[in-house]
Amino acid sequence: MSSAGAAWGIATACAQGWIDECRCAPRVVPNPKNPHTSDWDWGGCSDLVKYGIETSRKLLTRAGPRQFILKKIEKHNLKAGRLAVKKTSATSCKCHGVSGSCQSKVCWKKVTDLGAITKHLTDKYKKAKQVQSHSEIEKSRNSELIYLEPSPEVCSQYQYNPLHRRSLPRVCNWRNETHSLGDCDHLCCGRGYNVSYMA
């Protein structure tokens, strides 16, 4: 998610013109009423998605011993995050022509909203594949997430220890009727929670 968020943020900032190195370049569209003048219009910003992905790679890919399996897993998952931005990118088009006709059309790729990217990666996370060796990492698809050991299940009766207060203190959404992420029942392992009011 870190690499996907970085790529999305950079590409979005570029599209807004906040980064000088990657602003959208205007495209000249001839004005049919006056061939000696031109109307300025946007020609698309497909390169900004690529720029965001490439910059994310440079920012988050750290140098280190490649023989360490955890390092290879991290590098693989960072790449999967960047690919998620590319796979979820949307196509936008704009028509050009006389009186609103579409004699020519310019299309470009743009990043989708961060929520769609998060959902895409959440689905990948649920289907993540466990690997045990370098060869298994190399055989994994670039778009899939991988892991070495399963995360501890904090809500398990074998892991939960009230004395450790493993699930507290946490801020949660106690009025979450849809029981989505952030729901108190989920975060507190269904063992109840206290509601406090601050003046």
From TrEMBL:
UniProt KW keywords: Developmental protein, Disulfide bond, Extracellular matrix, Lipoprotein, Secreted, Wnt signaling pathway
GO MF assignments: cytokine activity; frizzled binding
InterPro entries in the record: Wnt, Wnt_CS
Coiled-coil boundaries: none
SMART domains per the UniProt record, alphabetical: WNT1
Gene Ontology BP term (one): cell fate commitment
Pfam family, one: wnt
Location(s) in or outside the cell: Secreted, Extracellular space, Extracellular matrix
GO CC annotation terms, alphabetical: extracellular space
Keyword Cytoplasm: no
UniProt keyword annotation of DNA-binding present: no
The family this protein is said to belong to: Belongs to the Wnt family.
Protein purpose: Ligand for members of the frizzled family of seven transmembrane receptors.
Protein name per its UniProtKB record: Protein Wnt
Organism lineage string: Eukaryota, Metazoa, Ecdysozoa, Nematoda, Chromadorea
